[in-house]
Design a protein that fits this description.
- This protein has helices at residues 46-53, 76-86, 102-112, 117-130, 146-158, 176-188, 203-206; strands at 3-15, 19-31, 34-39, 61-66, 69-70, 87-90, 164-168, 195-199, 211-216, 219-222.
- It is α/β, with parallel strands linked by helices and 228 residues long.
- The chain is built from seven helices and ten strands.
- The protein binds adenosine-5'-triphosphate and magnesium ion.
- Magnesium ion binds at residues 46-47, 92, 168.
Length: 228
């Protein structure tokens, strides 16, 4: 019961001119209450794995089990609902909707999850304040710096207090001070109920996690061995 997300014999291949095996028979159990970092060389499959975990992409073989339920990747409506209810996702790039302001981008995630407009705006403003972006709430993504865009994406990912947070190089666009702030925020929301998984190329930030994972040659390895 303790295992909230399980990967079972999970593989992912891409076929272009020839077959590329990115994830090769991966088995792993992510447990509630823990923060996981994911490292690995560029192209090792970190984003691929995170996209499967957040039901955006599907594996070629094997299963993803969330809360003891096998995910059916053909049920896109159900999976959209699962994603909206349980997941907060920060993508590696292109996080925001270009035609909506910062405030709207954040609020939409709450509205999509069933909150009313006023409540959604109130919550968004609170997060904007926390992320020191209150004075950018009416800016469109093209009127924000890369780092500001990323912080708006962070606010959007956190607005529904998700139990699973997936962040793909969340600090990639942030300067060191903002990256540290981001991780402080992330570690502050750690709780018994949450699973937090982030990919990073930064060794310092990777080392902050409870469990450090490495993707190499299609295999997922635990590098500190605390979560075997
Ligand atoms: N849609 C696709 N079709 C074919 N190959 C793909 C596709 N998406 C990704 N790949 C390939 O799969 C491999 C893994 O990509 P992925 O984006 O998961 O790597 P990553 O570990 O996130 O890299 P980075 O650190 O640069 O973000 C790469 O070699 C990439 O070229
Ligand atoms: Mg990536």
């Amino acid at each position: 019961m303790n295992n909230f997300i399980e990967l079972k014999n999970l593989s992912k291949n891409y076929t272009t001119t020839k077959k590329l095996s990115v994830l090769n028979n991966v088995n792993y159990k992510f447990k509630k209450g823990k923060i996981y970092s994911l490292v690995g060389p560029s192209g090792s499959g970190k984003s691929t794995l995170l996209n499967i975990l957040s039901l955006i992409d599907r594996p070629t073989n094997g299963n993803l089990i969330i809360n003891n339920k096998k995910v059916n990747f053909n049920e896109s409506k159900i999976n959209d609902k699962i994603r909206s209810n349980f997941f907060g996702i920060i993508y590696q790039e292109k996080n925001l909707l270009n035609d909506f302001t910062a405030l709207e981008n954040i609020s939409l995630a709450a509205i999509a999850n069933g909150k009313n407009l006023n409540e959604s705006i109130k919550l968004s403003n609170k997060l904007l304040l926390k992320l020191k972006l209150k004075n950018r709430s009416n800016h469109f993504p093209s009127q924000l710096s890369g780092g500001e865009n990323q912080r708006i994406a962070i606010a959007r990912a956190l607005i529904n207090s998700p139990n699973i947070i997936i962040a793909d190089e969340p600090s990639g666009n942030l300067d060191y001070k903002n990256a540290k702030e981001f991780f402080k925020l992330l570690f502050n929301i750690k709780s018994k109920e949450k699973i937090i998984i982030y990919a990073t190329h930064n060794r310092y930030f990777a080392n902050l996690a409870d469990c450090r994972l490495q993707l190499i040659n299609g295999k997922l390895k635990s590098i500190n061995g605390r979560n075997k």
